[in-house]
Predict the structure of GNAT family N-acetyltransferase.
Amino acid sequence: MPAKTTYLQQTDSLALKFSKAPQKPVRIERVICMTPEFGAYLYTAVGGAWQWTERQSWTDDKWRDWYGMPGSETWVAYADGAPTGFLELAPQPCDGGTLVEIANFGLVPGFIGQGIGGHLLSVGIHKAWSFRRRWPEFPAVQRVWLHTSTDDSPVALPNFEARGFQIYHTEEPGRGR
């Protein structure tokens, strides 16, 4: 059955609602020198259970192009020394401001249900809104947005809404994207 896609946004940094602390200590780090191999690992480890396929055919050059985009950021959560999930920020300058897309977000399935996802998402949204501090050459952030689908984890949409995102568009199966 084709998936329904839901687009969500925040247009004010005050919309962010932080999650409670996860059950175990979690460290979230920005990966400065992202490699195609680590990117492919994260994408597969997180997205495999949800049939993420868009990047499966990417070449090393395509991965390097993605991570080499000005402003592109990857944030990885670690618990007990293991990567538990990741979040990617992709900025888009637009009409005197910057739109920051959360291009990918998710957890390795074995870590779902421990509060790590809400924490990683909260930190990621905060990093999106504070993007200009790290990238002063970009205009101020006007909007943080993402999309999810009914093929993603069933807790994804409720987590996004709990963090203060508002739905602004949906696409039903068969109506085009």
User: Anything to note?
Assistant: Residues 116-129 form the longest helix (14 residues). The chain has one domain: 5-166. The radius of gyration is 16 Å. The helical segments are 36-47, 60-68, 116-129, 131-134, 156-162.
